[in-house]
Amino acid sequence: MNNKENDKFYRNCVGMMIINHEKKIFSAERHDFLGAWQMPQGGIEKNEKPLFAAFRELKEETSKKKKDVKLLDELPIWLYYDIPDDLRNILWKGKYKGQKQKWFIFQFVGEEKSINVKTNNSEFLRWKWISKEGLLLKIVDFKKQVYEEVIKNFSVYLN
Predict the structure, then answer these.
(1) Domain at 84, CATH number
(2) Domain containing 100: what range?
(3) How far is CA 41 from CA 1, 5, 12, 102, 119, in A?
């Protein structure tokens, strides 16, 4: 799951676990894969630091800003997943085998009523707060191992 050979075949990406005061996890349903729920994530642009990318993606995917979250921790390692063969040519025109992700956990401190996943380049239909167990039931299989690792590493914040 980490230290993959041939990093050039993996897209650099950030992932964000956002928890509320009840230690539930922000999750959103993808509009291109109904029934698949995930935490916010997105690509890191050239010369962009991972934490800056996380704040940019947070705004792009949820309309929330840096002031709406408090950084709790980040994983010291990168996590990898491969996408299924049938999706490789659809996503990123076949350039990548999968994603290499740097994960962060944030405490949500903003106004919940202003969360909006229907943004300009919306990836999501709707969102909800979900338990870690519920999230693992809703994530697509090829990301499940990464989600299990993220939950394990951030468990101190979830219990």
Answers:
(1) 3.90.79.10
(2) 10-157
(3) 17, 22, 11, 10, 15
